[in-house]
């Protein structure tokens, strides 16, 4: 039993890393998205970022280097990741507070696990002064996931947009946080968590030294790591492409560039669906050139 737990504990983060890498590779090979080109762009420099301008306003812009604000390029996604800015601003169902609680529960849980490993590496590092982190993580995560479940069930309109897998994911997260709370209540959770991590790292895990809730909690967390790349939890990492390749991409296409070749290839894809504005079984280029849709 101990050997199986050790093997899975070591394999789970590796599976997550490989899975995320494979998913990123798959997405990078997908056809180009249609760019939004909605200004202002946060990565623009100077005043243009505030009034919605772009480098295309400059005289002879094609011969000038396109300078970007790399600070805003990274701080803007962080605002979304840590504050859920767009959920607060655009979601009409009042999910922001509960989503914030859930996401911060997850971030703090990962922070706590990282601190546990740091404690094992550095002998003079005292983790006890950070013991408030798991309390906060488990409380926020339980509160957020349970509130989102209730919110989605009780709101008739929101219920229509909620699939079974959405409920399953929320219940799964709730089980991770609840078992964390039970682990805290069952004894000296700091000592037990350190004992678990140390046992995995040194391949010498002893279940007799751990409470049942500690084992279940870590096992669920490891299942979560494996599940991330192959589930809707992947929406977090994939936001890189959403921001940089759809929302913010306003680079012009250079002749004979790899991008131009990919676009030319994609324009020759055949449209296999029908619509009032579409010529079925024709290429995208032929559809784009068609100006007599009413006569098709």
Automatic annotation (TrEMBL):
GO terms for molecular function: oxidoreductase activity. Keywords: Cell membrane, Membrane, Oxidoreductase, Transmembrane, Transmembrane helix. The chain crosses the membrane at residues 6-25, 95-120, 132-150, 170-190, 210-230. It is a multi-pass membrane protein. The keyword Oxidoreductase applies. Residues 139-235 form the NarG-like domain. This is Nitrate reductase gamma subunit. It comes from Thermodesulfovibrio aggregans.
